[in-house]
Amino acid sequence: MSLKGIELQIAIPRTFDAGKLTEQKQQQPQIDQGHAQALNEKEVLKHRETVLHTDKYAKTNSDANSSKQEREPSARNRQQEEGEKKAMHPYKGSFVDFTG
Question: What is the pTM of this model?
């Protein structure tokens, strides 16, 4: 089977295109595997950093103290709150003049 010059002009560029396509098809599973591995690594890191469940008795002493303080406000805290309520502003008055 002999090829003429015109037939070679069409056949040779198509062989290059066909070669590129077959190479891409051969590399596609490797690319897909790489993407899957990257997603898996991200998911593993996310699971390592998140807390799935906590122990019932895993509180520290500072947690216990702060919760106790929240329940029972001390007398000093109450006095500070009352003092803040009674304090007058130094340059703002208590009278508003609405006459125009």
Answer: 0.38
